[in-house]
Structure formats: structure tokens, C-alpha cells
């Protein structure tokens, strides 16, 4: 910020900024060892996925960005189905109702 001030730019604080809540990784909590890993690549537990949904993630991408699930070396080839199952269980919907990023971005084909 000092460099901007030195350059003569006027810094005006914004009033409409919404502070982000910190997403604490479940694995950093003492009870971490009691849960099963869903994403082995990024060490994401089932409880982390459930917590992401409880905090507002309703889509696969929302959970991915908050937890890192499906974003490891395998790119979800091993854990995608389990993540979808946990999201659908937490939301109380069928797995076929889970979308990648909302709207019509369906992941599973329904017959």
C-alpha cells in the first residue's frame, strides 16, 4: 500500500466489503483421526465434505474449491463418486440431482 500512496494514488476504504469466514480444515482438529479419507490425493475427509455442504456449498465445484477434493493428482477419478454421494446425503437429494456448478451442469445422466 505504501507504494501506491507514494505513486500519488488516493486510497479510499470500501464500506461494502464482506469478510470471509475462515474454513478450518477438519484434519487440523484433534478429532481428525476418527474420520475416513475420501480424497486420498489431497487428504480430504468425509467430514470436511459434509462441513463444506453445511456451510453453503450446494454444487460439486463449491465443495471442490472449499476442500480440495477431486483436485489432486487423480483429478477425481478415484473420489468423485464418493464426494457426490456425501453431498447428496447431506442435502437429502438423489446423486443425479447434484450439479457441477448449478443450473444445467449435470454430472450424472438420468434415464
Question: What can you tell me about this protein's structure?
Answer:
By secondary structure, the protein is mainly α. The protein has helices at 2-6, 46-54, 60-67, 80-91, and strands at 37-39, 44-45. The protein has a two-stranded antiparallel ribbon with strand order 1-2. β1 and β2 (44-45) form a beta hairpin. It starts with a helix and ends in a 20-residue tail after the last helix.
In short:
31% of the residues lie in helices and 5% in strands.
> How many angstroms does the end-to-end distance come to?
56 Å
Q: What is the helix tally?
A: 4
State the total count of DSSP E strands. 2
The proportion of residues forming helix, as a percent range, comes to: 25-40%
CATH topology of the domain at 26-97: the name is Arc Repressor Mutant, subunit A
Structural class: mainly alpha
Order of strands across the widest beta sheet? Answer: 1-2
CATH superfamily of the domain at 26-97: BFD-like [2Fe-2S]-binding domain
Largest sheet: 2 strands, antiparallel
Low-confidence stretches: none
Instruction: Give the radius of gyration.
Output: 18 Å
The mean pLDDT is: 87
CATH top level label of the domain at 26-97? Mainly Alpha
Q: Element order, helices and strands? A: HEEHHH
State the CATH architecture of the domain at 26-97: Orthogonal Bundle
User: What is the 3D shape?
Assistant: elongated
Strand content: under 5%
Amino acid at each position: 500500500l505504501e507504494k501506491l500512496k507514494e505513486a500519488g494514488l488516493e486510497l479510499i476504504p470500501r464500506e461494502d466489503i464482506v469478510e470471509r469466514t475462515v474454513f478450518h480444515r477438519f484434519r487440523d482438529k484433534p478429532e481428525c483421526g476418527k474420520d475416513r479419507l475420501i480424497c486420498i490425493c489431497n487428504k480430504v475427509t468425509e467430514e470436511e465434505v459434509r462441513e463444506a455442504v453445511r456451510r453453503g456449498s450446494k454444487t460439486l465445484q463449491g465443495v471442490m474449491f472449499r476442500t480440495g477434493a477431486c483436485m489432486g493428482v487423480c483429478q477425481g477419478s478415484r473420489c468423485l463418486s464418493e464426494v457426490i454421494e456425501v453431498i447428496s446425503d447431506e442435502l437429502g437429494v438423489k446423486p443425479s440431482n447434484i450439479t457441477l456448478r448449478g443450473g444445467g451442469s449435470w454430472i450424472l445422466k438420468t434415464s
